[in-house]
Amino acid sequence: MRKIFRIGASFSALFLLSFGLNAQSTDFKAGKYIDLFHDVLREVAVFYVDTVQIGTLVNEAIESMLEQLDPYTELIPEEESESLELMTTGSYGGVGSYIKGSPKGVVFSEPYENYPAAKAGIVPGDEILEIDGVSTAGLSTDECSNAMKGKPNTEVRFKIKKVRTGEVVDLVLTRERIHFSDITYYGMVGEGIGYIRIAGFTMGGGNDLRRAFLELKSGGGLSKLILDLRGNGGGLLEEAVNMLGMFLPRGTEVVSARGRYPQQNVFYKTKEEPIDVNIPIVLLVNRGSASSSEILAGAMQDLDRGVIIGTRTFGKGLVQSIRPLNYNAKLKITMAKYYIPSGRCVQAIDYSHRNEDGSVGAIPDSLIKEFTTKNGRSVFDGGGITPDEKIEIGGYSRMAIELISRGLIWDYMVQYTLKHDQIVTPELFALTDDEYNDFITFMEQQEFDGRSATEVMMEQLLTMAKREGYDSLVVQQLNDIKKITTGDRSKDLLRHKTEVKRLLEEEICATYYYQKGRIRSMLRNDIQLNRAIEILSDCQEYSNILSQNDKK
Fold first, then answer.
1. Which residue from 228, 223, 248 is spatially nearest to 374, judged by alpha carbons?
2. 205, 265, 211, 209: which is closest to 235 by C-alpha?
3. Catalytic entry in 302, 381, 411, 492
4. Which of the residue ranges 7-16, 268-277, 298-307 would you say has the lowest mean pLDDT?
5. Is 118 in contact with 96 (CB distance < 8 Å)?
6. Reported pTM
7. 342 catalytic residue (yes or no)
């Protein structure tokens, strides 16, 4: 019971402190509701008919309260502090591999290049039988993952069944500091055109970008640059500013953060001497590009320093700060909004118009305001960054999504690697027609839902027609259409051959060449990248885009 009162007292103190700058009447209302919350909690704890999990109730109350604010303000309990560290530093202590569940048990799914698991010869499909003498039978992947993590330079013992030989071996691996670099791949993709993929904004990310750029430049011939921010969900604002400082004059204001009170406002300027303020740049974005990605892309657009290609970005322009709480918990709380140089905010104004993934959807014209770039081009707010040139990439078919979600693409990759010790480089690797037919044969033995989206919709329509009492003629006509749209799984795999074959090739390349191999394989069929190369190859078109004034 004393713990309950301590929770209530700490909760009250935190709230009263945070409201210290408000008027006395606001303080009174806050105190009133906190007292009411405390009283209800006490009464439930003492008198409710069944046993009550007080901690669960309090956590759910806090989560429900924070959900009323925005999607990004959240409580981070002590047990999730490691996830917070990974998010901000890109690092953790472990052996360096993804793992996944399978019918056999828990298996290594993707070892990281140059880390303990890969250096010990572990390959995708190797089964984990024991971790530190404890059987993995019945353990979840999360439980196994937690057992594998720990302080760097400590040992973890494995009993592993090798997928290629069936041999059971004992391995002792020494944990290392596993660091995910913000730069997942860089290289040359055209005559004088460098490419750098930026996956996040963690501590040191600016230095990672600087090293990658200088290495490309030292190779000779680098005269143009593509920065790929697609799927980059953001991270530390300071690292985005550091990256911008590489390509903009020192002292350039690139973003401001404005909060509830004037003393919370912060204006960020580039601090270091730039590396190259003249090199033509194209930035690739999509609706997975969020937060710091939008600051980087938006500032480059507002200052007419680069051309943006892709699709509208996510629409997250809120600043979160980590506040310490009692019991080693933390509160990630929104304290300000971002504004880029033109004066616009990338935050989606209307939360009600969102896509399923949370990104900005349709924006009413009444909520859109016009701003201008340094060169006088029109840009608009309302949510996210609108590219200078929109290029949509079609989504996956229902068949492809089913194969990915069920792990069947990965399963075939394991079968393929059992027969092939090596492959050619990712830029050249392609499955033959015979190998794809082998995949179709493999799929005939697998359980999966091979229906197309059309088939699913027809089944739903037919069920609805029967439920609503349509006559037999209508039902018969719908049944006839359903027969036409019902496919044969093998034929459907042939119909989706281009898409599925590409996914298989990417997965196989990742096995032999790690994540860099996956990216190198993906770039072969990248229409947005190809358009970026075209624009950078035509100096006049690049210049025209940065001077035109007809964009919305």
1. 248
2. 205
3. 302
4. 7-16
5. yes
6. 0.84
7. no
Choose among 244, 251, 239: nearest CA to 281: 244
DSSP element (H, E) containing 10: helix 2-18
Whole-number pLDDT of residue 13: 44
Residue 316 annotated as catalytic: yes
H or E element, residue 539: helix 539-545
Please tell me the distance from the alpha carbon of residue 301 to that of residue 343, in angstroms, as a whole number: 12
Measure the CA–CA gap between 310 and 289, rounded to whole angstroms: 10
Q: How many distinct helices (H) and strands (E) make up the chain?
A: 18, 21
Structure token pair of residue 463: 């069920």
Q: Yes or no: say if 318 and 353 are a contact pair by the CB < 8 Å rule.
A: no
Q: What is the pLDDT of residue 291?
A: 92
DSSP helix/strand/coil, 464 = helix
Higher pLDDT, 351 or 228: 228
Q: Where are the alpha helices (DSSP H) in 121-236?
A: 141-148, 205-218
Whole-angstrom Cα distance, residue 70 to residue 63? Answer: 11
- Structural domains of the chain sorted by starting position, each given as residue range(s) with its CATH number in brackets: 2-68 (no CATH), 91-179 (2.30.42.10), 183-319+335-392 (3.90.226.10), 398-452+487-530 (no CATH)
> Which is the catalytic residue, given 291, 293, 342, 452?
291
Mean pLDDT of all residues belonging to the chain: 87
Do 273 and 239 touch, CB atoms closer than 8 A? no
C-alpha of 385 from chain center: 17
Q: Give the torsion sign (CA, 253, 257, 262, 263).
A: negative
Selecting among 316, 411, 492, 526, the annotated active-site residue is: 316
Are the C-beta atoms of 255 and 268 separated by less than 8 Å? yes
Q: Tell me whether residue 140 is one of the annotated catalytic residues.
A: no
Any residues with CB less than 8 A from the CB of 408 and at least 6 apart, and which?
A: 402, 443, 446, 448
Instruction: Name the helix (H) or strand (E) containing 174.
Output: strand 168-174
